[in-house]
Amino acid sequence: MAGQLAYRKWPFTLLEASDKVGVAWRNHYDRLHLHTVKEHSALPFLPFPADYPTYVSRAELVTYLEQYAHHFGIQPRFNQVVTSIERTRYGGTQPGRWTVQTTTDTFIADQLVVATGYNRVPNEPQLPGLSTFKGDVIHSRTYRNGDPFRGKQVLVVGMGNTGAELALDLYEHGAEATISVRGPISIVRRDVLGKPTQPTAIFLNKFPNWFYDLVAGISQQLTVGDLSAYGLGKPKYPPSRLIREFGRIPVIDLGTLDQIKAGNIAVAPGIRQINEHLVTFTDGSQRPFDAIVLATGYRPALYELLEPELAARVLNERGYPTALWYDQPGLSGLYFLGFSTPLTGILRSLNINSGLIADHLTRQSTVPHVL
Q1: Are residues 279 and 307 in the same domain?
Q2: In terms of domains, do 153 and 127 share one?
Q3: 199: left (phi over 0), alpha (psi -120 to 50) or beta
Q4: Secondary structure class of 109 (helix, strand, coil)
Q5: Last residue of a domain, one of 282, 297, 312
Q6: Would residue 255 count as lying in a domain?
Q7: Which of 275, 297, 319 is the endpoint of a domain?
Q8: 291 closest CA partner among 134, 60, 136
Q9: How far apart are CA 29 and CA 146, in angstroms?
Q10: E-strand spans in the chain?
């Protein structure tokens, strides 16, 4: 978003909660690479360096983000942890500007872009008996690599993209990994016959949903197959419909599935009870574990930032914004970026949507004061 505004020479203030650019990417697990190809994953107006691989690594992305900020002269206000967002009023009920309160300062703006993303706060469910477990319990946010778990029995709770990859990383570091999966998992291969699948998804996205779903379903049958025999179930709907209607992102497989089929990574159902060293699953089976990794995802937690009346107007039942912007009275000048997860690639979507927001934003104001 900052790149879009800087490119248009539109003044803005960028608030960053940490003390560095790209702090989230600096702290992700070591082996992480983008699951989308670099041609569709760069930020606006600055491609990735030519010598970067097709799938950019975590460290390479951090370097790119630093270079991006330098290229566009982006100077964030660091250590500004936002605590509340509300609409000010010019006396009576006349809508005014946006007030953003941080732990140290107050900022006022005519236009406000909330770009905190859908993964701002770790989701750490209170599993039955988890507090009694005697082994190590960590959220995937603090996982770096499988070295500390070598030779140990490790339960990974959740099989999203992170859970699937951490289970693979644990196996490759000599741990005995089990993934707890509550229901059917939609899995798509990152590459088919050595070719990335993302460009195909982008091409199919031009067609009606029913055609996309038909082709995606056939492709999934041919490349993944029915995984019921491996404890992963068979989703009722194709990947695109799961995203559109239920917000469920498919797992982009990087090799976990082959290790499950080979018997090197175990799959267990949902958790019924956790004891000091033993976990009981919903099918009645029990297994001992030395450590538990919560790959249970994140949540946007916008209810914690937006005043209640505002949150009720702009968020859906899952806590996500319902639009990129709102033209209704009392909501004009408010924008949201980074809360969608399309099959065609999240970074590609950020690129497109940030451009739409920047165009709308610059048309709406003649005296810009953007936050």
Answers
A1: no
A2: yes
A3: alpha
A4: strand
A5: 297
A6: yes
A7: 297
A8: 136
A9: 10
A10: 82-89, 95-102, 106-109, 112-114, 121-122, 136-139, 153-157, 176-180, 187-189, 191-192, 195-196, 251-253, 266-268, 271-274, 278-281, 286-288, 291-294, 298-299, 334-336
Of 3-12, 81-90, 101-110, minimum mean pLDDT range: 81-90
Q: What is the mean pLDDT of residues 297-305?
A: 93
Instruction: Please report, as a single letter, which amino acid is at residue 364.
Output: Q
51 burial via Cβ count (<10 Å: 0-12, 13-18, 19+): exposed
Position 171, amino acid: Y
Say whether pLDDT at 91 is over 60. Answer: no
At CA 27, angle to CA 12 and CA 105, rounded to 5? 35
Indicate whether 26 and 47 sit together in one domain: yes
Tokens, residue 345:
């690639």
**Together in a domain, 275 and 209:** yes
Rounded CA gap, 199 and 192, in Å? 12
Identify whether residues 54 and 106 lie together within a single domain.
Answer: yes
251-253/266-268 β-pairing: unpaired
Cα–Cα distance list, 33 to 25, 39, 111, 161, 296 (Å): 10, 14, 34, 11, 19
Rounded CA gap, 175 and 354, in Å? 42
pLDDT average, residue stretch 60-71: 97
Task: Please check whether residue 181 is in contact with residue 266, taking contact to mean a CB–CB distance below 8 angstroms.
Answer: no
CA distances, 96 to each of 1, 37, 88, 186, 334 (Å): 23, 42, 5, 45, 12
H-helix or E-strand containing 210?
helix 209-223
Q: For the whole prediction, is pTM greater than 0.90?
A: no
The string of pLDDT tens digits covering residues 199-233 is: 888 888 888 888 888 887 788 778 888 888 888 87
Strand ranges in 68-168 using DSSP code E only, listed in sequence order: 82-89, 95-102, 106-109, 112-114, 121-122, 136-139, 153-157
Residues 179 and 263 in one domain: yes
